Amino acid sequence: MTIAGVALLKSISIHRADCVRCQGATVNGKRLACALSVIAGNTKYGRYYDCALLKLAVQIVANPARLSGIATTRAAGQTSVEADPTAPSKPNVLNQTGNGTFPWCVKKDVVIADGFVEVKLKPLPGKEDQAGGVVWRWESGDSYYLARVNALENNVTLYYVKRGQRHELNAVDVEVRRNVWQTLRVEFDGARIRVVFNGKLYIETDDRHIGAPGAVGVWTKADSVTAFDDFTYDGKP
């Protein structure tokens, strides 16, 4: 990878002094559409707190970013780091916006088969959708598991995605509040999948469509504007 116009850290830092910003830098010859930011945050979860996903936003014209293990969707969605005074771990959150069909942002250098993934999310008003979720065993934009909540539909739903097509495994009605931070957690071990929302188990099922280890990350839909914070995970390959 050829990078010009910015000095990069060799690894993700949790120190504010290591914040890096650049304007007009290029990656593989493509200009960044915005600044590249590595922004420090409070570490509530030790090594499981992942600044790489929450505090790094790269937007590159035409192609998704693959820098320091981050990959973002090729769709029209946008990923950005923004200040939010309501953030559970102040000052910043990861925002996914735009009009992509299923925008995602994953940590590609994490490979987990069994474990958990958890995030705090805040759905913001969208005309078409108000959804946000987590992905795991992510192999590509066409193959992964997804658990999402939707503030328009007031439900939590579990899917698997194969060949780019979503397949619903289970859905449960539950109140999903707009403009309020809520916690979504998924535990996965072999075929067993447990989906917990705000501390309550809503879905527990077995599914074997995707068994290989893969990446973890966050997901939105259509014109949803969703803020994410305190992304945590653990597991084994």
UniProtKB/TrEMBL annotation:
- Residue limits of the 3-keto-alpha-glucoside-1,2-lyase/3-keto-2-hydroxy-glucal hydratase domain? 129-218
Top-rank taxon of the source lineage equals Bacteria
Identify one Pfam family in the record: 3keto-disac_hyd
The Gene Ontology terms for molecular function here are: hydrolase activity
Give the matching InterPro entries: AL/BT2_dom
Q: What is this protein called?
A: 3-keto-alpha-glucoside-1,2-lyase/3-keto-2-hydroxy-glucal hydratase domain-containing protein
